[in-house]
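Researcher: Structure for this, please.
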Amino acid sequence: MKPTVAIIGIGLIGGSLGQALRRSKRYRVLGIARRPSTLRDAKHLGAIDAGSTNLTDVYQADIIVIATPVDSMVPIIQQIRPFLKSRAIVTDAGSVKGVLDQQIRGVRFVGAHPLAGSHKTGVKSAHPDLFRGATCVLVPQDDSALKAVRDMWKAAGARTLEMSARAHDEAVALTSHLPHLLAHALVHVAARRPDQKVLKSLMAGSFRDVTRVASSDPEQWVPIFQANLKNLRRGIRLFQKELNRLNTELAKPSLRASLKKSQLYRQPLFNVI
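Model: Predicted structure, token format:
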């Protein structure tokens, strides 16, 4: 009999995970969402086998994936705890791990963060290949539950990597959260210009590419920024220091060497020639 995975929150991430797991034919997927319309869309798109608007239906599940905004995860886990099977495993798909690692007790829990996504939201943007080849970080609080969560993400096409919550949150503050914040900052700078008509006519691909993630849903990103506030503020200070350094080099010969250094560092990261 296939294990049942209950996914709470059927948006881009939850819907894509459901599609990938159903395609693997190794899991039955139960979707839990607030709105019946979301469940109808998810069923039509092949993201779930069955749906419910009732959190108590997690009693059916062997693995429960919380794929909601990060500020709602701890309350949801507290709500569902009385209804879990005795050996049920709880995991998540959030991009901040420290809050959950510190607060979740009394359940078999493994934190997870799939490093895949889009600025688009909702189950209608889901795709079964979203996690193919992507890295999913696992923060094992319960080692006995680790293999089941690892196998689930591998079935979805992801590679898994284990690390501590602290190491994860420090790293993603620089590689994900800070870039999102900087994208918004650049948009704000442009939006305050008085010559908007001229500015918009001169928008280049570089502005589009750098600010793409500013189109992401604020309802998701405000809780992420606030949950990783200490690390994000440290990243902002480092960036301000680096920006000030580059500012002093703008009229100096050393600018060329500085830009060359960052170019060479970036190339192997993304296989850029």
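Researcher: Any notable elements?
Model: Residues 165-191 form the longest helix (27 residues). Residues 267 and 273 are 7 Å apart (CA to CA).
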